[in-house]
Amino acid sequence: MARPLRRDVFDSDTIGVYHCFNRIVRRSFLCGFDPLTQKDYGHRRDWFYQRLRYLTRFFAIDVLAYAIMSNHYHLVLRNRPDQVATMDDRQVVTAWLMICPKSQKQPHGTGRPPTEPEIQVELSAPNRVADLRARLSDPSWLIRQLSQYMGIRCNAEDNEIGHFWQSRYGMTRLLDEAAVLACLAYVDLNPLRAHAATSLEGYPHGSIGERLRTLEDEAIEASRWLAPIALAAETDGQPAQAVDRMTREEIPAAVQVQSAQPRGCLSITFQQYVELLRWLSSGESSSGHKQSPIPGPEREANSVLQRLSLDPEAFSDSVHHFRSRFGTAAGSEASLREEARRRGRRHLHAPGRGGLSPRARQPACQPAAS
User: Fold this and answer.
1) Are 133 and 83 in contact (CB under 8 A)?
2) Which one of 8, 24, 53, 160 has the largest count of C-beta atoms within 10 Å of its C-beta?
3) Distance (Å, whole) CA 45 – CA 35
4) Among 56-65, 166-175, 337-346, 352-361, which stretch is predicted with the lowest mean pLDDT?
């Protein structure tokens, strides 16, 4: 079967959620402790994290989850063509010049506003603004800037040349809320599966740890750069917060998007999501031995999965084998069939690798809308 084109997976005209991932060349531990060379490259995960935060201040892309591991990364991103459509031409050009400064003497990520002549050059180029507008809500361009930055900086530190990433990044389109929930859980539990942490809070370069540490330590600035978990304020009784791309002191006034709407991830509260993660992580350990179920998280997890008409056992299996279960799209069987029609294909996965399984029996309450 021919490999699908990226334009078949990514739809630039509609808001979508995508799982993006990549590995370091030869699967080396070039962002952690390398047992072969006995060198510790852990500081590079901070480079990745800071660069990602900087870029998301200017791209019209929400970060729903992330996990920066020793030799690979996972990102769950949502493109926001609705946001970039509200930006005028000057805002678009200024945002792009903050990402890719014209001056070679200016390091990427310094935050220095572009000069007026630099802005005018971009504004006067034919079709340039339309091209940049499309780039600002395209995950491929965000990851390109992120990958180039990491490759150049890490190769310079090692006095090496050549590829840093083993291939072009992978992308899976998450077609419905069940797929988003499964993928978020897969990414947030990644450090536990890799034995890089013993608790959800313990890993310093993962989104769930950052969210939980923010709640526990009032001294930590709220992680408003991450999209909120709750889809809408009515799900938890609290005002939904917009993604904080940059403060007024940090960003030129020409780049600010005043009409950006807050947008969460799921129709459940953050606490419900945490309890679901605790239930998933307490079930089957990596060594294959059953652990004691946690009554509270188990009840909360069943409640959440019942709303989505998902079978708990099948859902847990889908989370733990998410990458092998799904290819370029993830979702229920109905969602996968609809996506196949959109792409003009008969199916999107091999026989036997179905979508997220529904419950065997009809739940008492109606499932939440995807």
Assistant:
1) no
2) 24
3) 17
4) 352-361
- Cβ neighbours of 161 (radius 10 Å): 7
Q: Which two tokens stand for residue 221?
A: 């600035």
Q: What is the pTM of this model?
A: 0.85
Q: What fold characterizes domain 6-87+136-332?
A: Alpha-Beta Plaits (3.30.70)
By percentage, how much of the chain surpasses pLDDT 70?
A: 76
Looking at the chain, the number of H-run helices and the number of E-run strands are 15, 7
Q: What is the mean pLDDT of residues 281-301?
A: 57
Annotated domain spans of the chain: 6-87+136-332
Amino acid, res. 179: A
Q: Tokens 């069943």 map to which residue?
A: 302
CA–CA distance, 256 with 244 (Å, rounded to integer): 11
Residue 119 makes CB contacts below 8 A (sequence gap 6+) with: 90, 93, 94, 97
Q: Can you give 150-179 as a three-state secondary structure string?
A: HHHHHHHHHCCCCCCECCCCEEEEECCHHH
Give the number of other CB atoms < 10 A from CB of residue 71. Answer: 18
